[in-house]
């Protein structure tokens, strides 16, 4: 593979335009915006665990408007039914036929707000959509729109009436991260921006969905050296052998981490993945996939600590080892 011929990726400037467009609404959160774009480019989904009011909804709305994409918001509540998410067939008395009414999941970008406040049955309605890009309703499988991206949120401080996401569902999210509070200067900037008018109203598309689909295909062409693949496998395997972990990362984690690394390299304007790309993304891609032992929890060991240890223990391959 001649890397020099793959250094310039056609859509990379468009991605930077999207990031800057979203930054006009969400102040000081460039890394979080970029992580969301990496997930979208690689066909993954994001779980945000953060307190209310830090800009989760504004970020995903701004991304949708920057793409000119159809955006839907699902407010998860204890009484929400699976059909409220996927859609339902309704009998039309005039035509004497059943007609399908699509649910909010039938959109390009979906905000699943407070996903842990609904029952496991309704949570599972998203499983097929997250993994397969389709939903099965009344025995019929319906494909979702392309592109399709879900950003789910959950509140870490409210435990009453919540249903923790099972490991099977957590594993279907590419990244999990928090936005966090802004700094004093950033919060002052927010106040100045919304004093007269909310900046979300001024966001206009900077690219199209068709161009995004092209960029997703370009990401698949980003070269991943065999040495980098071995590094990914070593990290994931090490998570399964760590003394503090009772359930390590799955093979799906290896696949998604590789695809995310391709998207990250693409955003950097490179046609090949570096080991440092994997190392940077690993905490966001692996932490939520680890189930700790009871002893580890008693000693206040966290999944973040475990992943940090893995990154220090597993040898990072050097450029000399990578083939051309």
From TrEMBL:
Q: What is its EC number?
A: 3.6.3.-
Q: Which UniProt keywords apply?
A: ATP-binding, Hydrolase, Nucleotide-binding
Q: Which InterPro entries match?
A: ATPase_AAA-3, CbbQ/NirQ/NorQ/GpvN, ChlI/MoxR_AAA_lid, P-loop_NTPase
Q: Which domain of life is it from?
A: Bacteria
Catalytic EC class: hydrolase
GO molecular function (one): ATP binding
**Transcription listed as a keyword:** no
Task: From the UniProt annotation, give the residues forming the signal peptide.
Answer: none
User: Which stretches make up the ChlI/MoxR AAA lid domain?
Assistant: 238-309
- What are the ATPase AAA-3 domain coordinates in residue numbering? 45-175
List, alphabetically, the PANTHER family matched.
METHANOL DEHYDROGENASE REGULATOR (PTHR42759:SF5), MOXR FAMILY PROTEIN (PTHR42759)
Q: Which family does it belong to?
A: Belongs to the MoxR family.
Name of this chain's protein: MoxR-like ATPase
Organism whose genome encodes this protein = Texcoconibacillus texcoconensis
